[in-house]
Amino acid sequence: MTVNGEAVSGEVEPRLLLVHFLRDNLRLTGTHWGCDTSNCGTCVVWMDGVPVKSCTVLAAMASGRDIRTVEGLEVNGELDPVQKGFIEMHGLQCGFCTPGMMLTARWLLDHNPDPSETEIREAISGQICRCTGYENIVRAIRWAAENSNGNGAAMKEEVGA
Amino acid sequence: MTDLQQRPDGVGFGRVIRKEDARFVRGKGNYVDDIVLPGMLFGAVLRSPYAHAKIVSIDTSAAEAHPKVKAVITGALLETLSLAWIPSLSHDVIAVLATDKVRYQGQEVAFVVAEDKYAARDALELIDVEYEVLAPVVDAKRALDPDAAVIRTDIEGKKDNYIFDWGSGDEDATEAVFKKADVIVEQDMLYPRVHPAPMETCGAVADMDPISGKLTIYCTTQAPHAHRTLYALVAGLPEHKLRVFSPDIGGGFGNKVGIYPGYVLAVVGSILTKRPVKWVEDRSENLMSTSFARDYHMHGKIAATKDGKILGLRVDVLADHGAFNNTAQPTKFPAGFFHVFSGSYDLEAAYCAVKGVYTNKAPGGVAYACSFRVTEAVYVVERMVDRLALELDMDPADLRMKNLLRPEQFPYTSPTGWEYDSGEYPRALELAMKMAGYWDLRKEQAEKRARGELMGIGISFFTETVGAGPKKHMDILGLGMADGCEVRVHPTGKAVVRLSVQTQGQGHETTFAQIVSEVTGIPVADVEVVHGDTDNTPFGLGTYGSRSTPVSGAAAAVASKRIVDKARLIAAAMLECSPDDLEWELGRWQVKGDPSAGKTIAEIAFAAHATLELPEGLEGHLDASCVYDPPNLTFPFGAYICVVDVDPGTAKVTVRRFIAVDDCGPRINPMIVEGQVHGGLADGVGMALMESIAFDEDGNCLGGSLMDYLLPTSIECPSWETGETVTPSPHHPLGLKGVGESATVGSPPAVVNAVLDALKPFGVKHADMPLTPAQVWRAMQGRPMRTDMAIQ
Amino acid sequence: MFGPAPLARTWGVKLNMQVPAPVEYERATSLTEVFDLLERYGPESRVIAGGHSLLPMMKIRLARPEVLIDINDLTELDYIRIDGGELRIGAMVRHATLMSSPLAGEYYPIFAEAEAVIADPIVRNRGTVGGSLCQADPAEDLSAVFAALKATVVISGKSSSRTVPISEFHTGPYTTVVGPEEILTEVRVHLRANAGSAYEKVERRLGDWAIAAVGAMVRIEGGLIVEAGIGLAAVRAEHYSAPEAEQILVGSAPSDELVERAASLAGEHCNPSADQRGPVDYKRHLVKELTTRALKRSISRALPEGA
Predict the structure, then answer these.
(1) Do the chains contact at B707 and A74, CB–CB below 8 Å?
(2) Which of A106, B207, B586, B657 has the fewest CB neighbours in a 10 Å radius?
């Protein structure tokens, strides 16, 4: 499979879950695990361009496919507008649901660059956050929508440490 | 939305984006499950399928024969190490691995250590346990029946499931006000068992260095120092050879205060195998075995005059503590701070009596942003006030306004002995009502009722009780609840602050830098926060009960003030003047009347490390520390208003609006405060409408996965409307009060009051949480259900 | 697509496994390959598509297939098209695709309404129509949808295919007529003129299984209901349907009173059991209420604009 644009390969047990392959084999620990029942969404990654819950996909099933994780959001040292939005609008507290939320947000904005609050809430409704009450996640995604230009590069100023 | 922007110089309080976010948005957080050590093994726990059963035998031979298994640990093995039982946080014991019998579904029975986590789980299936099933005690109300099975047969001579009786207030005085009252209203209510369910479950990596004898434990703990000391006390391990490391924590909410058997088992596994051992629980383990919250069966009785002056309140509580009494309360208070249940009102008398019982359920009892059971206290008083309003046919806002404590009554001593530090209650309620458009909402409601539509407006006014606590009153297992802080200013004027408390998302790396900055004038960006490592931080009891800001924040402020004081002496030496001739202009000591002559904190810091001759008795360098023993608790408060719509046909509740006015004193970082309030409000909606861990008659846990234990999503949460008033604490050095749990404490009664207000046309007086569609429909039928048992 | 699955009752002894037991994995890229693999591995093999039903059951080891046959590459089953007067939905159509399909929506708004309340958006990206039907969970929404639409399913084996009316597809909770060497390949729904459809569901929270859910379809000609379908989920209605209620609708002019009678029959004839989603009386009430709503909306959709 390719992960964040890089080809990776490995022999794994067929039963290995994709989330474990990413975390344990590739050490891409930005993808989290939070439940076992595909209810929480902390494990969301893109597979062939679509957000999926990686706790409910076998690594073997992802073989030959294109995976994108949170580690693939930042491009050439430039944070994605979604990442900047989460920082600017305090869209995260403990940070555990954040990677999955941001990947869904990126997908939403790719398909709907100017989503309403309702559309944002609908898009992230399969993912649980215990800290933010969702309000600032919605604001963060709106921020990203308002601070993106066509190709996804964001506003100029540096945010974050 | 509050939007106090940070000062242009980057100093002090204000809206500052968080330092920690840079790593989190890149997926570079470092949580326990992200830690990999060379040679690390993986543990898995075999758990009891039964709520109550004798263990007849355990055969681990097949598991041990598994090629990847390195060790299988049972209770029998732990007994040889005197580790089968460990002290609970409430002067009871808990089993690390069951030896004699299992006492709740999901209890730990055996531990497998294997080369990978899949193999560890595989090996669990190879362990053969023979059980003799016993009758379980599921219903707390029947736990003391003469024929109830005795759960704690391990306690010598124990013949029942009784734990404690505890009371607070003046019972006689309370009875006296009931005698003279015009109106008395009584109501039974349950605050159901709920679970903190942080997105990250609990886990640990234990690493015993067999050569140095040093044990490092990477652990999901909100209280690393308390854990280290407890390990030392429990296992007899030398405390200087123990290092507890709490990395990034994926949410805590009280779930990560206690020491769980899994942590101890990882330690034992590492000692036995001489290799690091990781244990991370799965979601079912988290929900079924780690600290639950609430489970208070309450009977409230409120007395008032016929024109609505509340006279007194009595609450009798049956507290379901599960199989082991493992609540984390200050020793003196087995029901935590429940006795703040007289709330925000001016009562003549109040009394509460709490009875604790054992049941065949998971132990715990104080978790989930509860402020030591203030959650239950606020719920009962806010429900009782609404019940009274219903009885008196008064508007609940009017009734509250009439009875709220007045600003001139502060500091106020409550009927159960709390001294509320400061408050301006009517102002907060007025603001919330104004934001809500309260009287317009009432008008809308009347119009809708006439059309058969169900709309409800619920109010909750809460007084929080946080910042535990003064050493003279409070300890946990004998450890006083004071917290240390060390501030060191480097020669170039940058600083490091070391904390005993541990963030789980609250943003300490930013807010504690802001505290130091606010006092010293050193820019926030130049202050590094160190926490979560017992080898590198001062002692203290950790983060829970909204205590970081009131206790550790005060320690940081005092230590910073000491830096400034010392800087003055050094500046005087530099300027060759008397310290008395200097005045403090934030970040700089300058000569009174000659502001051009002065030294910045950075210049002073360099001088403190340089060759400057310092006055007699003054040591070099610029650092200070403080151990802060709070003189009192702080009492944040707030007024919440919830607006709901109930579908009359399906009984489904929609939260339309939620208005939250919080007063937590001055706000270090308004953005972070508001975020914490948002999260607590969502918690409240969850508890009020969907969350509960019920048990069937066999003691099977009916909330053991996130399919069954429902947490609110973005769809059930409205867009929160927040407001603030500011009433500083008179005793905190910066007037701060703490806010972490305010919204969790305050919001559930607002939601419940709103739903029941909507159901008023049906004559509904009360229904217990969670107000699921089924429960609301049953309430409309006059037959609300018990929510702690399986639905029949 | 999936064979019989054991009924999950409590977490019980299977507590906390949460990783699947060892299993072999094969990937099929064509139907022929699927049948070859099913033949080779026999009854201990299971076909996996979206995996959102099977993998959770494998994690708690209530399902322990020896071989998984991954059919995600079977793009030949990923279509929604009109053919022979029927809407034909391939088994590999993802929920998200069906939800947003203009073609399906043009004829039957019930699809978008039902799909919008199935699980959550991320799960819908992965879960498939065929997988949902074959899982045959009593609370499964699409089974009720297709029951209301009186769909036909196509079950294919190596040498032949057969069509089965949806009313004969399920043989009980978690069981279907799909044989060990067969898979469900397509669902077919008649295109109906003057028809309306709707879906109503109440759940405790978004993403939860239904407390009860009702799908409805009516066809109206000359002012009379000439065809009616009512599908029920989560209330143990036989074949997810409410034939008694359907019968009294057919041949009558739509009216509030008629809808009320049909809804009452639907509520009486289902067989819900109490669980943490609700007691039996509430579930029956809900069936009645939701049937009323779904029927009324279906009727208004079936009637010409402005009628």
Answers:
(1) no
(2) B586
Residue A107 structural domain? 81-146
A82 neighbors A106 (Cβ within 8 angstroms): yes
Tell me the domains of chain B and their CATH numbers.
21-28+482-628 (3.30.365.10), 32-134+201-249+256-289 (3.90.1170.50), 292-468+632-780 (3.30.365.10)
- Concatenating the DSSP letter of every residue in B414-476 gives -TTS-EE----HHHHHHHHHHHHTHHHHHHHHHHHHHTT-EEEEEEEEEE--BS---TTT-EE
Residue pLDDT, tens place only, C207-266: 999 999 999 999 999 999 999 999 999 999 999 999 999 999 999 999 999 999 999 999
Residues 32-71 of C with CB under 8 A from A: 48, 51-52, 55-56, 58-60, 68, 70
B-contacting chains (≥3 CB pairs under 8 Å): A, C
Beta carbons of C15 and B690 less than 8 Å apart: no
| Contact between B27 and A83 using a beta-carbon 8 Å cutoff | no
Residues A85 and A138 both lie in one domain: yes
Each residue's pLDDT tens digit, B501-535: 999 999 999 999 999 999 999 999 999 999 999 99
Q: Is B199–A92 a contact, with Cβ atoms under 8 angstroms apart?
A: no
- Closest-CA distance, A146 to chain C, in angstroms, reads 23
* C21, C68, C122: residue with CB nearest A104: C122
Q: Which of C23, C68, C123 sits opposite A38 (nearest CB)?
A: C123
Query: For residue B526, how far is the Cα from the chain centroid?
Result: 30
Residues A99 and A67 in one domain: no
The minimum CA-CA distance between C156 and chain B, rounded to whole Å, is 33
Counted domains in chain A: 2
Question: Closest by alpha carbon to C155, among C127, C184, C130, C181?
Answer: C184
Architecture per CATH, C195-300: 2-Layer Sandwich (3.30)
How close A158 comes to chain C (CA, Å)? Answer: 32
Tokens of A44: 């969301």
What SS3 class is residue B716? Answer: coil
Torsion of CA B155, B157, B158, B163, to 10 degrees: -80
Burial (CB < 10 A; 0-12, 13-18, 19+), residue B76, is middle
> In this complex, do B250 and A124 lie within 8 Å of one another by their Cβ atoms?
no
